[in-house]
């Protein structure tokens, strides 16, 4: 699973009303994937999903070993895998989706996220290094050294400073064929693109999950730290800019009716969050009274 197939994947399809291909959610870390996972669990039955890392040998072997009829029943495969996992499916194809995020913001979020998670393998490094040193050390190339390009270009995940323009070209080629390109910064619009493309049931209301709290704004970073992040994510910056252009182009093509749906969703979704919190408070009180 080192990269895209020789013949590539299917061309971008703006709408799949008769969805038969398995959805492949290439989850790049720190791109609102936890929130998406929660939404997807409401759209698919447990036996229709496969969730895994799919980056390393054991995980790939576990997926490959699944019976063929089990693979054919899968409606979605989601996880931190490099582009190319479609080759492991019956028929060798799938409907790809991914979310991108501003590279600087993604790295800052990752650093402060792992600092708050003692169970994370990068916790010790993050708590003993400044953000600048964390990025420059090469301790986490998957996350801090053009990580999005690595995932979409099907490149090695553990070699710091090795990503080339050739990998970027592969990543852009892969991205252009994706059925949904979402942006963390434009989550509502991206979510409704997923619903339209894959025929998800309404409602798709949500509350954000796994959000990094109390992290500094990019504007407050000192020049040396900002420079270190920029230097190790130059290809990701190009990839992100390409992704934003594709996102805007596809969104505009859906016309004013879709824009109106987005506007309505932006008003109604926060109400869902308020109601859900009130229900949770009511349930907690009820359980206390009944205990």
Quick summary:
The protein is of the alpha/beta class.
Please, could you describe this protein's structure?
Helix content is 51%, strand content 7%. The chain has helices at 33-40, 57-64, 68-73, 103-115, 123-128, 131-137, 141-144, 147-153, 165-176, 187-198, 223-231, 234-253, 255-290; strands at 23-26, 49-51, 76-79, 95-100, 180-183. It is globular and about 45 Å long. With 291 residues, it is α/β, with parallel strands linked by helices. It folds into two domains: 23-253, Rossmann fold (3-Layer(aba) Sandwich); 256-291. The protein contains 13 helices and five strands. It has a five-stranded parallel sheet, with helices on both faces.
Helix share, percent? 40-55%
How many separate helices?
13
Count all strands and give the number: 5
> What is the domain tally?
2
CATH first level of the largest domain: which class?
Answer: Alpha Beta
Strand content: 5-15%
Properties at a glance:
291 residues; alpha/beta
Topology:
Blueprint: E1 23-26, H1 33-40, E2 49-51, H2 57-64, H3 68-73, E3 76-79, E4 95-100, H4 103-115, H5 123-128, H6 131-137, H7 141-144, H8 147-153, H9 165-176, E5 180-183, H10 187-198, H11 223-231, H12 234-253, H13 255-290
Parallel strand pairs: 1-3, 1-4, 2-3, 4-5
Helix pairs in contact: 6-11, 8-9, 9-12
